[in-house]
Amino acid sequence: MTDPHVSAGLQGESGRNLPPLRLHVPEPPARPGESADFTHFDIPAADAAPRPDETAQPATMRDMAYGLVRVLDEDGAAVGQWNPNLPPETLLRMLRAMALTRAFDARMFRAQRQGKTSFYMKSTGEEAVSIGAALALHRDDMCFPSYRQQGILIARDWPIIDMMNQIYSNKGDRLKGRQLPIMYSAREAGFFSISGNLTTQYPQAVGWAMASAARGDTRIAATWCGEGSTAEGDFHSACTFASVYRAPVIMNIVNNQWAISSFSGFAGAEATTFAARAVGYGIAGLRVDGNDVLAVYAATRWAADRARANAGPTLIEHFTYRVEGHSTSDDPTAYRSAEESSLWPLGDPIARLKQHCIGLGIWDEDRHAAMDKELAETVRDAAREAEKNGILGHGLHHPMESMFEDVFEEMPWHLKEQQQQMLDEWKAAGL
Amino acid sequence: MEGSRPVSDMMSEAATETHGDTVQMNMIQAINSALDVMMGRDPAVVVMGEDVGYFGGVFRATAGLQQKYGKNRVFDTPITECGIIGVAVGMGAYGLRPVPEIQFADYIYPALDQLVSEAARLRYRSAGEFISPMTVRSPFGGGIFGGQTHSQSPEGIFTHVSGVKTVIPSTPYDAKGLLIAAIEDNDPVIFFEPKRIYNGPFDGHYDTPARSWAGHAHAQVPTGHYRIPLGEARVARAGEALTVLCYGTMVHVVENSVAEMGVDAEILDLRTLVPLDIEAIERSVRKTGRCMIVHEATRTSGFGAELSALVQERCFYHLEAPIERVTGFDTPYPHSLEWAYFPGPVRIREAINKILKD
């Protein structure tokens, strides 16, 4: 206490008859070893949410930000105003894309555990958020995803072997081994280059949408972030720009309750919903059952139609649950109750669509089991093919000198010198 | 390597380009002309930033552009630097060629994540699938009693980032030609405009009346299209006694100091810091054997440190004296003590005398 500034601040003023101030630091409902409890979640009936007109003024639909758009009820029937009434082939395509995403995740997670790559991130339990949105957008709408929307690529039929090549950083990797696994880039699939820096893609998506509008194009943009990253400054700047210029953009918040070890309370969930952020910006806000792929599809279609009608942006909160650890580097049993995922009241997105399809008479348990088996084999075969291009650390990578390419369009002298120096050093070392 | 390419100067540029009529412009008018020329030539060029639209910019650099090209191409933005640059990255990914303005370089820091993590890395991380062909214009430098947040020279922050180019003009002629080259370049460019010399060259004597660009040879600016290639230095003054490496406002301060001292210095106006014209630097220092580096930015880890290291590595056996750096001090930019801080004639004179003494 030798610093007078510090000691004065810590001591405060004595002798005043006021209660001491208290700092509120949020705590999740359950820690390891404790019972999970989701009874505090208010889950409206599947047909409860009204469906406003796509061009509704944001101020008239504030309740949507506090409700929950749902289509599939507890029995798996599609009900209410948001039912998109999709044909059987679309439903089965959704089901297959979600199942393929889960099978892909399982295989790649195992590949990391086997030492074939350095890192992986699953999207288990959140498949509907990517698949439902991707199928509701046009293929040439540009997606600005975060790292947990691999389902978009799968829904857009991007070759999974190409995704695996990226994960293995092998000689087939179009990104030349420069990016951490899962940081895909697929321009042809309308899938913007993923960055490790959170929420940077938010203003970028708004800028892409503004460019499309300024040029009189008809394409729109969509972007995704987690609820944790809504705390980033880029989230605020993106919402401001989107509102000011009425940009044709859909901004998705995947509220999976967890940002690594921090529960959603650290992003502000104790005080309000994430969809409610839209209200303050004058943006249309929807809160959606993220484990109901039909609700995700319907909300995305609503927002896409709104954007295409020049009625402005939409912010959608997808209420879901991150079933697995944050990444292969994470152990969720260190910070949350192990019971949580099994008690999650909105269930599993694949199981719910499967139940719906069976109820419609277009699907059955045998066909589902056969599909799962076939998809596991498809993923296994693709992985074997990808591994022929090399796995991480086994030497089958892009040439070392390619490290210096694409920093600039043309390589400047200092990079050419460093490139040559590296090659000379390795040669001198006899390698 | 030496001698493989001539050092560019204004006359050789002028001789190789066709650009129509030439009129006298100050640096703001030259920048405005560059934007006008590029917006007229390329519908993908868009201008955006705080107060750049209807009002025409707090320094008038974008005056008249919105009226001429419309609000879809020249527009005011909310006050959010991370948003301005983030949106510009998205526009570039779409296929536009954005020219965002950051009102003062001192306010570029909120945009650092978008510049460093996104714009600079986009081509590399996507293996060329997506690019960020933006040019970030921003007034920089001191000498205007701008205090701590209207005077900074943060070029060293950007030269340290792989994937961005950093350009700083020192004359109206160069400002237009370099800005056109920057806008046409497919890599992100940080274009710092020395605001002290927007309206006239500054010789470092703050107590004498301000001069205008009128009558200055490099204030005769072609009205049409021309470019000055990025990565080429300009010999501002040819000489034999020592080499001075500088850019921006300091080119004029050094020119005047050298003239007052009667020293036959060779002054290189670097114009582009990344990529750097290393051949011009080597050629000059090997000739003179002595090197002084002058910049307004703070000293420690400033761009002068990189220049000094390069000269030491490449010209060691030609050096006859230690390399001197005359820079801003390692303090925030002060208000009332500006002329004690600014690397002006007094400090330049001392450094030259020290170099020539050895």
TrEMBL record, chain A:
Purpose: The branched-chain alpha-keto dehydrogenase complex catalyzes the overall conversion of alpha-keto acids to acyl-CoA and CO(2). It contains multiple copies of three enzymatic components: branched-chain alpha-keto acid decarboxylase (E1), lipoamide acyltransferase (E2) and lipoamide dehydrogenase (E3).
GO terms assigned for molecular function: branched-chain 2-oxo acid dehydrogenase activity
Classification via Gene3D superfamilies: 3.40.50.970
InterPro entries, alphabetized: Alpha-ketoacid_DH_E1_comp, DH_E1, Oxoisoval_DH_suAlpha_N_dom, THDP-binding
UniProt xrefs under Pfam families: E1_dh, OxoDH_E1alpha_N
SUPFAM superfamilies referenced in this protein's UniProt entry, alphabetically: Thiamin diphosphate-binding fold (THDP-binding) (SSF52518)
Alphabetized UniProt keyword annotations: Oxidoreductase, Thiamine pyrophosphate
Cofactor: thiamine diphosphate
Gene Ontology BP, a term: branched-chain amino acid catabolic process
Residues of the Dehydrogenase E1 component domain: 96-391
Protein name: 2-oxoisovalerate dehydrogenase subunit alpha
Assigned protein family: Belongs to the BCKDHA family.
Enzyme Commission no: 1.2.4.4
Source organism superkingdom: Bacteria
Automatic annotation (TrEMBL), chain B:
InterPro entries: THDP-binding, Transketo_C/PFOR_II, Transketolase-like_Pyr-bd, Transketolase_C
A single GO BP: branched-chain amino acid catabolic process
UniProt-listed Enzyme Commission number(s): 1.2.4.4
Cofactor dependence: thiamine diphosphate
Keyword Oxidoreductase: yes
A Pfam family annotated for this UniProt entry: Transketolase_C
Keyword field: Oxidoreductase
Enzyme's top EC category: oxidoreductase
GO molecular function: branched-chain 2-oxo acid dehydrogenase activity
Domain Transketolase-like pyrimidine-binding: 25-200
Gene assigned in the entry: bkdA2
Domain of life: Bacteria
Ribonucleoprotein is among the record's keywords: no
Name used for this protein in its record: 3-methyl-2-oxobutanoate dehydrogenase (2-methylpropanoyl-transferring)
